[in-house]
Amino acid sequence: MLKRLKYHIAVFFSVIGPGFITAVVDNDAGGIFTYSQAGAKYGYLPLWTLLPITLLLIVTQEMCSRMGAVTGKGLSDLIREEFGLRTTFFVMALLLLANLTNVMANFAGIASSLGLFTVSKYISVPLAAAAVWFLILKTDYQRIEKIFLFACSLYICYIVSGILVKPDWKEAAIYSVRPVLMLDSGYITMLIAMVGTSVAPWMQFFLQVAVVEKGITAKGYAESRIEVIVGCIVMSVIAFFIIVSCAGAIWSNGPRDIVDAADAAEALKPFGQYAFLLFCAGLLNASVFAACILPLSTAYTVCEGLGFESGVNRRFNEAPVFYWLITLLIVIGGGVVLLPNFPLVQMILLSQVINGMLLPLVLIFMTILVNKQYLMKEWTNSRVYNFVAWTAVAVMIGLTVGLVGISLQDLLRSK
Amino acid sequence: MVSDNVLFCTELIGLRVYDTRGRRLGRVKDAALVPIINPARVDRFLVGGGWTWLTVRFDQVRSISLDGIYLRDEKLTPYHSDEYMLRIVRDLLDQQIIDALGRKVVRVTDVTFQIKPMEGHTQLDVLEVDIGMRSIFRRLAQGVIPPSWVRKIQKPIGPNSIGWEYCNIVEPDPQRRLRLNISNVALEKMHPADLADIVEELGPDDREAIIETIDPEVAADALSEMDVDIQASILESLETERAAEIIEEMSPDEAAHVLAELEEETSSEILEELTEESKSEVSELFEHRDHTAGAMMTTEYVSLPENATVQDAIEVLRQDEEMLEVLNTVFLVDAEEAPVAAVPLAKLFIAPGSHPLKDLAPDTLLRVTVTESENRVTDIFDKYNLLTLAVVDADRKLVGVITADDVISVLKQK
Predict the structure, then answer these.
(1) How far apart are CA A153 and CA B190, in angstroms?
(2) Per residue in A271-305, pLDDT tens?
(3) ipTM exceeding cut-off 0.95 for this assembly
(4) Residue A414: is it exposed, middle or buried by C-beta count within 10 angstroms (0-12/13-18/19+)?
(5) Which member of B109, B202, B230 has the closest CB to residue A307?
(6) CA distance, residue A57 to nearest chain B CA (Å)
(7) Residue B296 resides in a domain
(8) d(CA B361, CA B313)
(9) Domains plus CATH for chain A?
């Protein structure tokens, strides 16, 4: 009995990585901004959304990791095999665009978090870009994964800074389980943004490839599923602390809009040097982390889907497309942040629009694929699970379309 | 460059088919090979027109060009699926194949055919499988831009193709492998390390299919080059007898290593299937704890009595030619089987046959016990620049040998 338990624990540690990293990195610069904004403007009220967000995340992530484990193939591979080249090309083109803007947002996150320490963005961004480039291209994936897991553990910054702010825990507990709906357009927009940003198309591709690369098979899947679920819960816990720290620090002193995540960090200053430092460190860590993962996962996905050689263990001349994609994503993503008057906010809104157009496609493809008997054998969705999955997909699509509408509106207004 | 006697699959699909009197019958939907009859010739064209698909046999075609396919015979039969057919669009396009020449797994984007005028009819032979940018462009432009323009526009893009004779189709179903006449000859000729890389890149079903059907000796060599987790998952998916057959061909230390990774039930089932000799060798190694000299060593080595001559050594080596590929040291043992000297193999070449082996060995013999730690072993290899190291048990008897490649494996895993 004890031996079996030991075996399961050992297997669990051998599969840890993909699910955890994917879910946690979901809280990138953009995610942190959304949650900070929610807390700053509406306090504890939006906390209840975290529960359904966790569920949605678990359902969508679980299907991908299961497909990876059973078929041993990435999502872009499967889309190519089942839906043909043209569809794949279209999906990959959108993904590339959306992720490029995501990379920009995260380099902007690096610039603004270090800007709080009066480091010029003309120093911080090029340095970070060079560091990211070297880390991705000069390290093998096993080591990168360990570094990523370490980066995941640094998210604890948010938990500590949340505690330092001494928010109203009773309120936080109550509103975590009490849904509050108000017919306030700002509030509804906020809720949609929170849910809409929680599942991004790139995550599905990255998770599945990471599961395959890790060598997880159908046999080790039980443990892998637990890992995915734990990862999603951790992601929500971090989001919870971001919201409560902004609620405690900003909302309780007077609700207001914040400009960016660094603005939220600034507001934490009265609660001591540490609360501020930790919030900044968290933002920096999250931005660097996402700036590493996004180019890597984009290059993998696009190359696999279109049949180019890929993988960091190949040489530059063996996989030129792969390396060029990574390099260009980093150079362009970091470069535009340095351009004066670059319309970054518009780009981020645009990225939400593209992501929102892509996500329904990806989710529908995924759910169709996971139900194909010849691919998944006995691992297809059960009837009940399918009902849940399609409902989750429908909800996600509905909310994302809502977010696209809002983003388009903002985009047009800002012009 | 693209000449007139080739046709791409992207051009073939959608090509109009006309009967003997020039009436349009429909458009080409797919083309099928029957590899068991001819590995490259398109045997049937599947033509969609009206309600059903029709089958055009290769010898019913008068001419093929970008203008269309003209038939010379009108007795067409309705299409029905057939297990012996390899359909280009359904089974080949967008799927993975193994490029035996480039030794990698690639994804098919397009197929190039050669138009071959024969006596009375015209046939298409598969010439190459296309991958890369140029074929991606053709796929995206297919049906949007006229084919003659596509040919012009694609010129500046470099071609990237694999000769059909080097393409190995990946098919997990063993029955269908037979029907499609898929052989493993090209894979078996590859270096085991290359084959291992290819197999690792495929999904679990395809991995099993290859290891299941390939020559067990090749399978064992390739498996030994793979990540131990993948070795374990492949062996677990095989029939016990097949797994045992492969384990049998592995060196005892590799075998013990992978068996230790399997679930206890599976590994004991496999052990039961082994021959008595391998079983005792492997289970002996199995006893040793992880990260010790015992777990690193192999029990395949050559030992001779301490008074043996060069001639004796050569006699012994003749009996086991397979081992010569990796052997670089011969050990001398005393009456109690304790090692007394290690003779470098190269010394045998220059010594006369009657020369005692003992004189050829360096003065000191290094040895470790089975319980010695991995780290200590690698230190010794580094310090004394060794190729092999003798391993002794508690009674000082020679029980195994650690070679430099065992040390490299250990270091690589760190």
Answers:
(1) 44
(2) 888 888 888 899 999 999 999 999 999 999 999 99
(3) no
(4) exposed
(5) B109
(6) 26
(7) no
(8) 13
(9) 2-414 (1.20.1740.10)
